[in-house]
Amino acid sequence: MEPTLDEFLKNPKPYANNSYVTEPGWKSLYVRRTSRYTNGKFRHLVIDLANIESETPGGGAFRRLVTRLRRDYPKWTIYVESVLGDQFREGLRRMGFHQAGDDFCPSFYLAPEDSWHPRKK
Ligand SMILES: CC(C)(COP(=O)(O)OP(=O)(O)OC[C@H]1O[C@@H](n2cnc3c(N)ncnc32)[C@H](O)[C@@H]1OP(=O)(O)O)[C@@H](O)C(=O)NCCC(=O)NCCS
Question: Which protein residues are within 6 Å of ligand 1, measured from CB?
Fold first, then answer.
């Protein structure tokens, strides 16, 4: 059975460093616990979000997820891997994420010290 997101992040031992996890509002949420070098800084605590699909696109699940991660896991960098669609890319920029990688297949991250803009303007 898939762990919940909290089980995965709070109790790493029983799980591998990557897993599909369950989280309200998400049809598919594949996460990875890793370290990364982003914009000149090494980050020890990084959660990768990959292969993600919300139950109701546009329903706010992503904003709720990031708000929760920032509140409950404030030391973690949130890294959204390989964002292909323009709509999501633009939204990530509005929310305060930085681009990592080239324009062809960019990823986006929000570091602990970055400002987070959860409200829709
Ligand atoms: C992209 C996705 C994961 C975002 O989650 P969400 O819960 O819909 O996001 P929210 O409602 O919190 O909105 C956050 C941003 O997501 C993006 N978004 C919202 N609805 C979207 C849709 N139907 N398609 C693509 N991106 C969408 C927008 O950039 C939005 O920011 P904005 O409101 O400033 O425009 C979700 O829309 C989805 O599953 N889309 C289909 C699959 C997909 O594109 N996965 C991404 C792989 S990288």
Answer: 52-54, 57-63, 83, 85, 87-88, 90-91, 94, 120
CA–centroid distance, residue 17 to ligand 1 (Å): 25
Output Rg (C-alpha) for the chain, integer angstroms.
14
Could you identify the residue written with the tokens 């546009």?
Answer: 58
Q: What is the pLDDT of residues 75-107, one digit of tens each?
A: 999 999 999 999 999 999 999 999 998 888 899
Identity at 100, one-letter amino acid code: A
Q: Could you tell which of 29, 48, 49, 54 is best to mutate to test the pocket of ligand 1, judged by most ligand atoms within 8 Å of the CB?
A: 54
Question: Read out DSSP for 42-68?
Answer: EEEEEEEEEEEEESSTTSSHHHHHHHH
pTM greater than the 0.90 cutoff: yes
Q: Which fold has domain 5-110?
A: Aminopeptidase (3.40.630)
